[in-house]
Amino acid sequence: MPEGAFFVIMVAKIVVVFGLMLLSVSYLTWVERKVIGDIQVRLGPMRVGPHGLLQPIADGLKLLFKEDIIPQAADRTLYILAPAVALIPAFISFAVIPFGDQVRLFGQTIDLVITDVNIGLLYVFGVASLGVYGIVLGGWASNNKYALLGGLRSSAQMISYELSLGLSVIGVVMLSQSLSLVEIVGAQARTWFIILQPIGFLIFLICAVAETNRAPFDLPEAETELVAGFHVEYSSMKFAMYFMAEYANMITVAAMTTTLFLGGWRGPWLPPVVWFLVKLYLVIFLFIWLRGTLPRFRYDQLMRFGWKVLLPIALANIVVTAVFVALR
Amino acid sequence: MEWLVFVPLAAMALVTAVLVIILRNPVYCALSLVGTFFALSGIYLLLQAQFVAVVQVIVYAGAIMVLFLFVVMLLDLGHELPAWLQRDRPRLLIGAGAVAILLLELVIPVGSWTARAPHGPQTSEVVGAAGNTQLVGRLLFTEFLVPFEITSIILLIAIIGAMVLARR
Fold first, then answer.
1. Interface size, chain A vs chain B, as Cβ–Cβ contacts under 8 Å
2. pLDDT tens-digit profile of B97-122?
3. With CB atoms counted within 10 Å of each terminal CB, which end of chain A scores lower, N or C?
4. SS3 of residue A40 by DSSP
5. Domain with B140 in it
6. Looking at the partner chain, which of A75, A140, A159 has a beta carbon nearest the beta carbon of B63?
7. Sign of CA dihedral B112, B35, A123, B143
8. How many CB atoms lie within 10 A of CB B117?
9. B72 to chain A: nearest residue by CA?
10. Which chain A residues touch B62 with a CB distance below 8 Å?
């Protein structure tokens, strides 16, 4: 492939994925409100456009034109920087996730993944582990006790659940013998890893919800105790950036679940990209369903559950998988 | 070509490392250290050590520095240098001298060796063929098994020690 064509294809892939991601992020707010509305026997947004379909655009415009308030005692530099620090990792981890097989377009073979790195899985974990900075810095820079407590809670929570999250996928790595996400999808040609690794899948799913700070693990922003947690002082577009980061994280985590356990883009009849999106949105629906169903954990329950239940089970899962892989 | 990437990364590593020491606000110091880790991680990538590069980010930037920040934020440390450091000029000078000597001891041999030393067995081709992570794993469990196990035991002792101290 000539270098020029390679460059054009790369930029095109990045622009398309980034654009779709932004669109999904804004419309996920609508999906979430509609689904939660249905669960609670309400209509959800109905007024802006048919069935409230233009609501995300109205919300975006409103947030753009709101007054941007920076508290007087806040640390200005970090206060402004923190939402961006939260947003960037949420978007760049999608770079290594394969969303389809190879396609032929204009005489070029194009892999439907932005880049296939041989340590793709670790890259996603590395980038995801940085997301906590946006939250903890935002909480500290606001110079507000509620915000600080929310930020600290969230960092403790994310570090605790990252451990089990990392351990839960080691079974997948052992079975596929690779850290490249493209090869992990390739290894699921016959059986999806959800069948071979059901316990790993459950742990991964639970930790994924905790990592994205969503209900029932949404302690960093527990309204009843902390007002709004780490983003209590944020307004206007900076507030919106935190929310975009949360929804983008949700998409990334759902894409990782799909890639690691649900066979990625693999499936019969339909084209691969469609399969990928269907699985992705099913996982996201599950996240929203959880939020509509489960009450919030108490903080000590959360920590005990993470360290004394999930971590030992994840370790046991690795030992059992290792024995099976060795005997095979 | 490598210089185009190496020089900015090395400069970033040095500048952020100096900022860790000279900035007054401890939160900014901790963040500068995170910047140093990123620059180092980039240099590892340049050396084809992708595994080490990512682990550097996950372990240091993603976990250890978050705990550091945690402590710094909760303690709300003052922004001033401790009193003994402001008073004790001679001690500062001795420290700076020792650091300079150590630096020379590092720079001189490395500078004179790299030109004529033979390559080790792990060249880029070998690493590329076996896979970076696979090679690191194999070496850890064969050639470097004993140091690896000793490190594990030291870490275990540290964990138990921390538990004992915390219980007291």
1. 64
2. 999 999 888 888 777 766 566 667 77
3. C
4. coil
5. 130-168
6. A159
7. positive
8. 9
9. A140
10. 125-126, 129-130, 132, 162
Which residues of chain B have a Cβ shorter than 8 Å from any chain A Cβ? 27, 31, 34, 50-51, 54-55, 57-58, 61-63, 66-67, 69-70, 73-74, 131-133
Is B133 close to A119, i.e. CB distance below 8 A? yes
- Note whether residue B105 is domain-resident: no
A95-104, A146-155, B113-122: which has the minimum mean pLDDT?
Answer: B113-122
pLDDT tens, B4-44?
888 999 999 999 998 988 887 888 888 899 999 999 999 98
pLDDT score of A74 more than 90 = no
Examine residue B39 and state whether it is found in any structural domain, yes or no.
Answer: yes
Nearest Cα of chain A lies from the Cα of B65 at a distance, in angstroms, of: 10
Residue after which a domain boundary falls, among B78, B94, B115: B78
ipTM above 0.95, yes or no: no
B140 plus B67 within the same structural domain: no
The number of distinct structural domains making up chain B is 2
Six-digit token string for A223: 């309204």
Average pLDDT over residues A174-187: 85
What the block records as the tokens of A250 is: 């949700």
Instruction: Please indicate, yes or no, if residue B74 is contained in any of the structural domains.
Output: yes
In a domain? residue B88: no
Q: Of B78, B94, B117, which residue is a domain's last?
A: B78
Query: For B71, which residue in chain A has the nearest alpha carbon?
Result: A152
> Is B50 in contact with A156 (Cβ distance < 8 A)?
no
3-state secondary structure A269-316: CCCHHHHHHHHHHHHHHHHHHHHHHCCCCCHHHHHHHHHHHHHHHHHH
CB within 8 A of A234, min separation 6: which ones? A83, A138, A142, A242
